[in-house]
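Box 3.1. Reading complex inputs
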Amino acid sequence: MEPHATPSVAPMSAPARRLRNLFFIALGLLVLLNVFIHPHHPHFGLEGMPGFWSLFGLAGALILAKGAKGLAHTILGKDENFYEKGSEEEGSEGSRGQGVK
Amino acid sequence: MTEFLHPSLFFVACAAAVWLLPGRLGRWLPPVAAALAISSVLAMQPGTYTRFNYLGLTLGLGRVDALSTVFAHVFAIQALIGFIFALHVEDRWQHVATCMYIAGAFGCTFAEDYVTLFIFWELMSVASTFLVWLRRVPASTRAGIRYFLFHILGGLLLLAGLLLRHQATGTFAFEAADPAAARFYDTLIMLGFCVNAAVIPLHAWLPDAYPEATVTGAVFMSAFTTKTAVYVLLRAFTGFEILGIMGTLMTIYGVIYATIENNARRILAYHIVSQVGYMVAGVGVGTAMTVNGACAHAYAHILYKGLLFMGAGTLLYAAGTAKLSELGGLYRRLPWAFLWYMVAAVSISGFPLFSGFISKTMTITGAAEAHHTWLALGMEFAAVGTFLSVGIKLPYFAWFSRPDPGIALKPVPRNMYVAMGIAGFLCFYIGVQPGFLYRLLPNPVEYIPYTPWHVLQSLLLLGFTGLGFYLLRHKLVPEAKINLDFDYVYRMVGRLVVALARRPVEQIDDWWTEFYSRAGLRGLMKIAGGSVWFDKSAIDGVVDGTAVGVRRIGRTATGAQTGRLQDYLAAAILLGLAVFALVWFTG
């Protein structure tokens, strides 16, 4: 999707992959703990459900990342010299960075 | 009088000394002033001090109570940390501006009436503008002008509100307003405060100006302007429901922009909007617990946000850029900056054992217990975004993500690391010893942060945020772009005004030239020579000058600010304030 000449995220090395697997195991353990540890008085019904906050965190991160990037790629994102271009010569604003997606 | 020594005194005196002392000696004074300020804050006893009559008004500079003490406490500590971070800076004007800025913050904190508050409020605006301008690059000159104009707007709202209020109530007393009987002047004052608190949509000056400030200036600005505004909101507008909603919206708005921004310091600036949102929401909900939460969060936030700006500032100082798209892989060459940055990053994200955990959860729990479930959920969502953008995205793309691109790095002065170490230690200390902070809060604290459930909930939330980042890490690669925000509106309004004003002014100039060449030459030449001289040099000069000035407003202003004018302005302000301070403190 992004036309980067060089990949900006390097592929994972073997130690990084081991670390990632440890991370996954830790996440699993946390959810398991959630089965036994509950809030004393949940502020709303769903909070008592095991795994609610893990779903909330994951869904929140995905929605935010997708949504914010979507905004950046449609209406918010502009060329870095967007404002400078306008102030030098008014009237030449036809070439705003719209084609850059 | 012995119990209260106004901390602003130390900073005003320090500014004068740094200005007058020859050579590089002056750099060592600001940390001394900050240390004196800490000791004076620690020695303070509650009460009202330094009251006097001036022009028939009773002005009070020294209201010391629990609320002002907690803010003064952290202001003094952050001043010391910031000045250690700035110890290597040789530009004395930066130290002078910073001292005056901090003097303004303390002045606002202890102000007992709106007149005193307004004076120190404006002092902060002027002095902080210099922290932007003194980076001395064209982009910061322009950003500084926008910053200053917007703060003038905020100041005028405050001024209009306090004058109308005086008209209606006959008092300038800076006291709490009643949420059930808010008047128009209360709204004006609140709007003035909201400009400085960066409440959306009045926030755009912050992410516009802070990334353009000097490396050290941004560290100070991140601490004082918005938190002074939180303090005055707490003082006057606790329990105004609209602030609860706006605050929660701020928390989310900030993280959305932080997720897509490329400039590391702009990401952090958007996170000020987001974090101050928690405090504004705490003010708005207005229970004892959320007021405590707002104070505690302000305290914790000043320390970790300063540290974040130090970390990102170190990147900018060493690598010459803070753009994530140009950084990456620097963990081998800037490991200490990475370590201290991460301490601040886990603090802001609210990891157990670090300061954000004991303050942020307090506000959220308080909002939930006051049955503002949606506000609490909104703030939890923003907490996800905080960890996603500041806790993972920024450090990952600055220090890891790809092989070291081999940018030449400038060596980092040791004092910068010392300051980061102190701030990092405090973030950790407050996280494990919450009692240290809780004792300072204005209301008794019943909240216990370290319960198994609170710890587990935070770890679940943050852990799965991490999983979300892992899944979408290719999607989140920073792009070399900027993002439109509300500053677009006032930039365009500014251009429109210039465009509209240009036509009539040029028209008048044309008419005058026409009139002058017809009537002027024949008619006026007959009058005394003095009048001709006046026409030629004064009137024509004024009109032509105006037209030219309007036409080139950007460039003219740029030239003026980067030249000598700022020195004269600074000197004039400093002199005025010294006289003012003499009258004030001795009167």
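In summary: Chain A touches chain B through 54 residues (CB under 8 Å).
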